[in-house]
Amino acid sequence: QKFQRGEKYKVPAGARRRLKEAIISSETMSELAQKQAARYDLLLPEDAGFLEGDEDEDTNTISQDVIADAVDITSGSKYFSLHLSQFGPYRLDYSRNGRHLLVGGKKGNVACIDWQSKCLMCEMNVMETVNDAMFAVAQKRWLYIYDSKGVELHCVKKFNDVLRMQFLPYHFLLATAGATGFLQYLDVSVGKEVAAICTKMGPLDVMSQNPHNAIIHLGHPNGTVSLWSPNQKEPLVKMLCHRGAVRSLTSFKPLNSCFLSAGASCLSLSQRGLLSAATEDIVQVYQNVLGSSPVSKPYMAHRLRGQIWGLAYCPFEDVLGIGHGEGFTSMIVPGAGEPNFDALDTNPYRSSKQRQEWEVKALLEKMQPELIGLDPGQLSKVDQASFEQRHKEQVEALGFDPLAKDKFKPKTKKKGRSSAGAIEKRKRKVAHEDQRDVIQQTVQERTEREKELKEKSKEKKNLENKTTLDRFRK
Amino acid sequence: MKVKVLCRNPDDYVRETTRDIQRVPRNYDPTLHPFEVPREYTRALNATKLERVFAKPFVASLDGHRDGISCITKHAKSLSTIISGACDGEVKVWNLPRQECLRTVQAHEGFVRGICSRFCGTSFFTVGDDKTIKQWNWEAPGYGVREEPINTILGKAVFTGIDHHQREGTFVTCGQTVDIWDEQRSSPIRSFSWGVDSFSCVRYNPVETELLASCASDRSVVLYDTRESAPLRKVIMQLRSNTLCWNPMEAYYFTCANEDYNLYTYDIRHLDVPVTVHMDHVSAVLDVDYSPTGREFVSASFDKTIRIFPKDKGHSREVYHTKRMQHVICVRWSADNKYVLSGSDEMNIRLWKANASEKLGLLSAREKAATHYNKKLIEKFQHHPQVRRIARHRHLPGDILKQKRELREMREARRRKEQNVRKHSKPGSVPLLTEKEKHVVAVVE
């Protein structure tokens, strides 16, 4: 079931009574929690959207106008476009709860709108090129942060030539990658720069974050993707992904490969696993990307005028926003959004009071950047190495092993049945338990030794066969 | 062509009126909630820090005695009354919520050695240095009437302790011998002795009401059954026990407070090895009392602290001390599991919270849920070094800290010597004794 976190923990064989009891009780608790969560699943109010074509119709030939007509008015109004052709191709970002949309044009127009009510919150003209938008706007030279009215709050001069930005919401970290090859992390709650890493890989143009473990992925022109965390100066992982340059990147929990017809310039992944890829002026949406079989046919397609610069899915809606040379278009993609949100985490319908409470709680639970790593659940695992080391030190200090199981001492008051022979019999019954571990270990050692011997003999054979006259043999 | 696009009706998600509470739809899908473990860890850290911030255990001090306090007893039926006896023979009845003394009785000439209240809650008994047992009424006498005991029994020797049966009208005293008395008689119905000089404390088992235990001056703890004619058995330790207390939930465990700075929990079925050795005090332990849940107990010591121990752990979870509190002679855990009372040498009884950071008073449902959640978080992450460091931190007065370090050095030195002896002698000639086995000398039937 999807609520299971990790495997069941087996009780180790020679465990003491208290450890066994603790493990069993915690396992029953976690099973109960899983069952209750699964039961609550039935009560969720909304269902996901879908699009099914008729027998001979192909879903990707259905155009947006047809969909907008077939659906009710509110959903139909989600397909709209803004013609903003003067200020260059647009990049965009949706806020976390899907309420607000920020569009930034390359020639300097930045606007934040509440896109459902089409109410413009602020708009301003920044007379410089806008590279990436987030409410922090990476302008040509430095990083500027604006508030909701459009008033400039900060101009961060330390972050220069920023090309891409990503916000890690649970750590309140803004990760920026620039043309100088530096990856910098800014803590927006405190205002301090947490880490500045010099990736020696040239200008960084392609960036994405893995929302599951807050690792930043950077794509490079030689086809490698590197994974970074603010704690280390070197990349955590470097993998070769493409033969050509990596042009766009999107990350999700398990990484799989999918087959695309032509090189995509922009990628975006929705909450329910729909991947959209944009080339030149066509946007294609693929379904079931995370499955095992490679997908060849797109689920939906849309053609626009103008070159596409930015793609983003709205978090809890069936909408894909496209920023292009002619402005901004919002496209309906049934089945893209997660139908049921958790109001304590991200709530599109929150009031200002709720937002204030949420902000305070989120700041209290802000995680330290030291906890960012490849496995977010590492804190819950037992640190085997340090435990063993401490145990060794303890044994040395005390002179004996405090965790070793006590030897079995049979009871001697058995009303006339406690003769020496009977005691020996009782001891023998339990003796196999102690011997089991010892036998296992010896057997393991023996098998390992045999394996090694075999490998050695194989190598020897190979060496022996080679003589100097081998090259004259056919 | 079948299409369905996700469409939410805002009326379902926004509250109807401003007098309503907000609607909070939840989805427990783990993909919507990444970083479960680090977020919980951060919350656990915050919870431990807040717990330490709110840890203010001292509630009140009951003033009024004119000499050091030698014993305290709870009322059998009422949570708000206690009686305390002082070293000048005075007995005071206190009302805890108002923190005032209801009544003062000059009970004995000399020390008040023991007080116990009768199970029905109408009278209480006191024994003192003047070799008498007196029974008094709980209610104060009317105006103008002199304070008179209901009953006085004269004995041949000084009595040092008293305890009353849970259900019947019998009580037991200890002094030179352990005597069982019936309330109507003026001489004991049975007397137990085992060639011991004197007994310091006697207690009835609250669950198995026919069992008794007493601490004797020959460093032993003796077990009795009132249905038998002779004592059952005794366990002799290396140093004398001052007091003992039975576990109110588990009939076969009792804990004795010893002079060698430790407390020992014994199982009466296996007296040869104590179940647990509780080590944390730096001076002789004078009194011990169990919480009514039977999971923890509090101990008072000659070093001027009281410590709360979990029943199965070897170290204390909490230590209470004040500059004004001198040697603590007696300690009691209140019957509602929330407060601890300590009576000390400087004539004050202090009231402490058993759980130092809990909020007193009526809590709303959300507050209760939040406190439970925080407690569980701390318990879940208790082994992580950062959380453990904060949760374990307690301030100790300077000389107690120094004494603690000194004792640790001494113990390390002894252990090293024993290890060296074992290393350099014939293997098997020096037996390996665990810490528990070291303290019991013998068990005698």
TrEMBL record, chain A:
SMART domains per the UniProt record, alphabetical: BING4CT
Subcellular location: Nucleus, Nucleolus
UniProt keyword list: Nucleus, Repeat, WD repeat
GO CC terms, sorted: 90S preribosome; small-subunit processome
Biased composition (Basic and acidic residues): 445-474
GO biological process terms on file: maturation of SSU-rRNA from tricistronic rRNA transcript (SSU-rRNA, 5.8S rRNA, LSU-rRNA)
Renumbered residue ranges of the record's region Disordered: 406-474
Domain named BING4 C-terminal: residues: 298-376
Pfam families according to UniProt: BING4CT
Main location, first listed in the record: nucleus
Domain of life according to the entry: Eukaryota
Protein name, entry field: WD repeat domain 46
Origin species: Cyprinus carpio (Common carp)
Upper lineage: Eukaryota, Metazoa, Chordata, Craniata, Vertebrata
From TrEMBL, chain B:
Pathway: Protein modification; protein ubiquitination
Family annotation (Gene3D superfamilies): YVTN repeat-like/Quinoprotein amine dehydrogenase
UniProt xrefs under InterPro entries: Sof1 (IPR007287), WD40/YVTN_repeat-like_dom_sf (IPR015943), WD40_repeat_CS (IPR019775), WD40_repeat_dom_sf (IPR036322), WD40_rpt (IPR001680), WD_repeat_DCAF13/WDSOF1 (IPR051733)
WD repeat residue numbers: 62-104, 278-309, 321-362
UniProt KW Protein biosynthesis keyword: no
Listed GO MF terms: ubiquitin-like ligase-substrate adaptor activity
Keyword terms: Nucleus, Repeat, Ribonucleoprotein, Ribosome biogenesis, rRNA processing, Ubl conjugation pathway, WD repeat
Places the protein is found: Nucleus, Nucleolus
PANTHER family xrefs: DDB1- AND CUL4-ASSOCIATED FACTOR 13, U3 SMALL NUCLEOLAR RNA U3 SNORNA ASSOCIATED PROTEIN
Family: Belongs to the WD repeat DCAF13/WDSOF1 family.
Protein name listed in UniProt: DDB1- and CUL4-associated factor 13
Source organism of this protein record: Cyprinus carpio
Lineage, uppermost ranks: Eukaryota, Metazoa, Chordata, Craniata, Vertebrata
